[in-house]
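Let's do one together. I've listed all components of the complex below, 704 residues spread over two lines.
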Amino acid sequence: MKQSDVARRRFLQGSAAVAAGASLGVLGPWADALAAAANMKILSRDEVATILVVARRTYPHDRLADKFYMGVVSALDEKAATDGETAKMLSHGVARINRALGKPFKDATAEQQLAVLKGMTKDSFFQAVRGTSVTALYNNKELWPLFGYEGSSYEFGGYLHRGFNDLSWLPDPPESASPKPE
Amino acid sequence: MPTYDRNDASVVVVIGSGAGGGTLANELCQKGVKVVLLEAGKRHTIDDFVNDEWPAFGQTAWLDKRTTSGTWRVSRDFSGLPAWICKTVGGSTVHWAGASLRFQEHEFRVRTEYGDIKGATLLDWPITLKDLEPYYARAEDKMGVTRTHGIPGLPGNNNFKVMHAGAMKLGYKKVHTGRMAINSRPRDGRAACQQIGFCFQGCKMGAKWSTLYSDIPKAEATGRLDLRPESQALQIQHDASGKVSGVLYADRDGNQHVQKARVVCVAGNSIETPRLLLNSASSQFPDGLANSSGQVGRNYMRHMTGSVYATFEKPVNMHRGTTMAGIISDESINKPSRGFVGGYEMETLSLGLPFMAAFLDPGAWGPQFTSAMDAYNHMAGMWLVGEDMPQESNAVTLHATEKDQYGLPVPNVYFDDHPNDIAMRQHAYQQGSAVYEAVGATRTIRTPPYPSTHNLGTCRMSAEAKDGVCNKWGQTHDIGNLFISDGSQFTTGGAENPTLTIVALAIRQADYVAGELGKGTL
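Okay, and this is what the predicted structure of the assembly comes out as:
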């Protein structure tokens, strides 16, 4: 646990240093810095960096911090650590997309990367990263507030007194259509 | 609670504890009938429910192996999950949204009303709206449906405000917060809705009607219900005379038992019900039970569905409050000049962020997708649900090679949209988008069908034995003491959410079964 805390702090510092690069659409140095600090069970540093880039290109949200995309890589690493087939599929997949451009995928331009990914939507590696991202990203409670999703409400008494009908930019329906709360 | 002897052949065995089976079991117990209720899933309490989409899905969804085929998009996006229904005491009444609409008069006689539609196996129901009206009234009272029996409507949430304002601009008239089996005030020992927003995950207030905490405890209070959770029915057995005699089931430890029965009522939802009949084939009934017509598993319907989500400049926060918060019914008419027969309802719908990611456009990725997700709290949404055409080739069949944990063939669900379904969906997408564009939508998104929640028609009612599986009481044409007690009975689907009709049919069937038992004819 301590190790990963240190790793998280280090990659958070690292990502600040390369944030400018990321915003310009060149993700390679950003991914390399994060991968260098990551503490994975089985994935190599290059695999981590490459999968990070694939995840961010697949579900790009400028507002999302690096740790959320690293969560996708961690989820795949966990699976690969216990399942040899997954490990093989990921390492072959990374090799495949690196071959596609004749240079490391992560160092390519955004346009080149998107073109490669669009050409491999049925590929098992791409589908594994994409499918894992759907839950590893959007089912991460830490990022829900960034999207305005408030999650569990029962313990707060629901939304009856917390804005379920607070929209004010449209006229209210008549009571015949929408009675007032009792 | 009694425990009936497994050799007690005087009991009625009901298979499945959802809207059909849970209601039927209670109604029979109230009339003095001894009932064994077999339920494949676990018994949860309201305290178990979680306001968290994926864990809740794992808790109650039916996740046993199923396969799909056909050209429907669900088969591509969710090949192992044709339906989003439940394996738990209470069945899909734990998960349902609560919309409780009666069929319209013409929807019981669509073969007459619509005529001969190429490729569709349309049939008139052997009952009319008039036959069912008293039972609809009893069902609405039992379930506490708003806007019936003097029960006020629910207050509309933000998602409904957007729908209502857009509907008014389009000139729609039948727009309100719906007829919902969700308490707008405390009733029948159940609390009022607190607008929690997790209707699909099991209502933490118990405000939404479910057999889990309504009919089943009432049945238990009679002292006549023997509920056996985690008991998966494997085969319905029969005697030499061709009458059913008992049910083979596996308990939670996998041990197999036979419960003898005087009558067997099957309510496993429209995939498991025909599967059980087909898996019960014997030398006397080589094609499965009650299948002399060859119609068991056929005419599978799932309603024409789709969703429209729209993003706006200002916040909506659609996740706050009831999931299905309001309805537009103006398109729920038969008006063939629109390019299709039958009609559809437009009902608000909301998904949390995790499920929105999975269902908004399954498989989609890239900036187009993420920019929509970025607008999550500025989004409004509606579900489109309409009558689909029964087709003989749309069917639940037994898989040739895949087996379940008991070694029985898993069900395969084959589905193709009928051209009428496609034309209706196109129209519904267009009208749904227009509702939102009328109030300033910056973008509208047409979401494809989710795994089916309305599974219907696979053991349909028919006047003639050759056209279907059961008669107007749900009694199978072939076997007098075998009943179909769920949405599988539906001859056609109507435009309306089916639960109220399933409950009304179950109350009516209970009257019939108890009456026949009293007369000694069963």
